[in-house]
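Chain A, query sequence.
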Amino acid sequence: LYTRRPDAYASFKQEGEDVAVIIARDTRNGKIAGFGACAIRTLFVNGIPTRVGYLFGLRVARAYLKKFPILHRGYAYLRTLHQTRNVACYITTILEDNLYAQALLEKRRDFMPTYQPVGKYEMFALTTGRFAQPALSRHSSYSLRRAALPNLPALITFLREQGQYFQFFPVITETALTSGGFPGLRVEDFWVMLNAEGEFLAAGALWDQRSYKQYLLQGYGGYFKFLHPFARLLPIFGFPALPAPGSILAFCTLSFWAVKDRNPAIFSLFLEQITRAAASYPFLLVGVHETHPLRSILQKRPHISYRSKMYLVFWEQQQEFSNNLREDNRLYLECGLL
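Chain A, predicted structure.
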């Protein structure tokens, strides 16, 4: 159960630089019939900082799903917002097994923007702490350190240089990290891997977001139901332990991460060290698009994963923009902002 406690509205408003929460209300009884949200963020597109909207949180109460034009009215309102917000395009994700939502939104309708699939996005849950893969002692010339304010300019430069290679990598600024632009995220939550000369090789943040959104574990189904009695043994084999039903999942996301020149060996070492640095959490989440050049490194590690479909969403006047997206770049979607 995905929740946004203690204040759902405040939680939604923290998801971007400018967030619109759209509510459809039944005027006869005041009940909420449906809602959705759009968070505008500055992301790299073709290497240039660009305002992009992220559509999320779309929900329609079952009683209103087929009887009332909720989607018609909702997207009409979104279109009026679009005309005043100078957004280049939108992106969104839908869980891979949510076939109903995929069919609903992919169907071309005059009142809706185009939902163009742009591949799969996969979330990996990796075990942490003493059960994580050991750091490689032969690479003692590399070190992992917690970032501090004096490192901030170099950290920002590194993230920009490496991030602009990807489409939709967030544009990180010093102001955003020092004035609450990403709720609950501090400069000290970033970890950097350096070589003997002090050069940045990799960086990423361990972001705990439970203060404003949570996952409540209701129970297990499928093969997880049969694995749960053996949950304590799973970390021995490199897999995250399965939490008890009724608990709030305790985890962090590896966010805003970048590796110098997308080097697989560096990323592998960084993962080994960052999972040990995250020992206070049972597991961490890291997400990659299927086009990410380092995805294979994550696939080789013991993990539990789930996938979503990613979409580029645009109105007809944005068609030219979508056609001009560079294809030589890879896609990055920040799992901490989903």
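The chain has a mean pLDDT of 90. The first strand starts at residue 2 and ends at 3.
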